[in-house]
Design goal:
20 helices, disordered C terminus, 412 residues
Length: 412
Amino acid sequence: MTFLFDIAGIGRAVWESLSMAFAMFWEILWALILGFGLSAVVQAVVSKREMTRLLPDDSTKSISIACGLGAASSSCSYAAVALARSIFRKGADFTAAIAFQFASTNLVIELGIIMIVLMGWQFALAEFIGGPVMIVILALLFKAFLTPRLVEGARRQAERGLKGIMEGHAEMDMAVAEGPLLKRMFSEEGKTAISHYFVMDWHALWKDIGVGLLLAGALGALVPHAFWQSFFFTSHPLFAKLWGPLVGPLVAILSFVCSIGNVPLAAVLWNGGISFGGVIAFIFADLIVLPILNIYRKYYGLKVSVFLFATFYAAMVGAALLVEFLFDLLGLIPATRSAKVIEASITFNYTTGLNIIFLVIAILLLVRFFRTGGPEMLRMMDGSGEHGHHHDHSGHHCQRAAEQTAKEGTAA
């Protein structure tokens, strides 16, 4: 009889976790589609081919350009890491390449939208203020401690071309580079590139988003608030402000969740009692989760990967602490912990209406993706880590598909 009660209890816990995860997914679905759509538009008109030329050194100008280019790229952490190595191998400065990598995951549109929907505008503002601060701290640490010998060792290892994850995503370049901005966006080639980037980003991130939602649902449903409050020292406010940014990245490392998939988990931690700066540090830390640390080892060697971990962690903690005290001084830290985790529910309201509208947009993009050789492009992307020449043809393939689509439209 006790055994049956245990099974029932486990089943109920699983159901509560899955229900909460799906409720959070429904809450952010329209925002995900909007974010990926805007990101796809930007990627479709900003070419990756110019990045190497624009990032020759670690000057303020190059770092600023790296931040802008990163913000215009995909939010996938694995793709950002792969692309940073790619442009470094092609001649970009190492510090500028890493700054691009940080901006790609911390200054992108979709991250801010999801944070606003789940947690509030204050967190999105903190992210977009703290991100550049973190990159400045990192650049200063690199200037102080990154030796030419370390850079040379990183370049030698990078030239070996060891495969990580998302190599094809990093190499794929379908941007339309000629003509005025709006003309590029609404040209047949531009619309095809947008649809391909839209699906490519979903393809890159669906696992992280899914794991993040499932983990957030499980922790939100099963872990009592008393545990989080004890772990984050909520009864000691001053110590909690210092403890949160220190422990936030460590929780992220062990969670394995990166990119925007860690935002639902950040919402659970915020409701549980982690400090405001701890939330920001946790979200910053998507670039030091265990799988990505292993990729650094492959890309740049063990010594450089240890250096990257130490400087990344210091920059994340430092920026989060500065954000914590700045927002506290300005009175911008939310007084209540009401992130949409337990409160999330599925009803016919404005969220459902927005989801329906944006699902229609997503379907239209999917239709164009399938009609213009999208599946073949994905196969090329997944295989380009082994066959480096694939990415050279991908843009031509996309252009041929767009031209074919335009001819069909004219004929019709």
